[in-house]
UniProtKB/TrEMBL annotation:
Binding residues annotated for substrate, in chain numbering: S19, D22, R49
Record family assignment: Belongs to the AIR carboxylase family. Class I subfamily.
SMART domains attached to this UniProt entry: AIRC (SM01001)
Known pathway: Purine metabolism; IMP biosynthesis via de novo pathway; 5-amino-1-(5-phospho-D-ribosyl)imidazole-4-carboxylate from 5-amino-1-(5-phospho-D-ribosyl)imidazole (N5-CAIR route): step 2/2
Name the record gives this protein: N5-carboxyaminoimidazole ribonucleotide mutase
Job description of the protein: Catalyzes the conversion of N5-carboxyaminoimidazole ribonucleotide (N5-CAIR) to 4-carboxy-5-aminoimidazole ribonucleotide (CAIR).
Database matches in HAMAP family: PurE_classI
Principal EC category: isomerase
Domain of life (superkingdom): Bacteria
Amino acid sequence: MAQGDSGAAAGIVGIVMGSQSDWPTMRAAADVLDALGVAHEARIVSAHRTPDRLWSYARDADARGIRVIVAGAGGAAHLPGMLASKTCLPVIGVPVQTRALGGLDSLYSIVQMPRGYPVATMAIGGAANGGLMAAQILALGDAALAGRIAAWRAALSASIPEVPEDG
Ligand code: RP5
């Protein structure tokens, strides 16, 4: 089992990223999917450095049982959009924060897709929400998962204090 994969042989959610350096950001998607009991896999698939890997990943994802892709990249972040050009599976884009431009470059690269090829774009660094969005899509056909998401949100809500404290 590769690092970042859940126990299932094939992940239902494909978490892909342009570089190893994106993993500290993207592991938040894996963490939330773990918490919700959603099978997932994590792969490095670079639009520029491994274009053949990108093409075969997108081409084979549906047949391999992937239902949603969460794709994170930084800078010239073409990975989510190129995946969306090759597969009809929903693609959720996560702009990774960059040193030079703070992630605005990543955000603009991901969000401005042409008509016909949408990428559901999260906030800069918003990998946890990417995982949650993937789970919510899957929960449309999975009442048990919908219940786990509701419980997860209720726990988050309950953890928010009503009165601020010093320090
Ligand atoms: C992008 O370039 C990756 O998604 C990453 O965010 C960025 C920098 O990659 P490294 O130079 O750290 O491998 O393709």
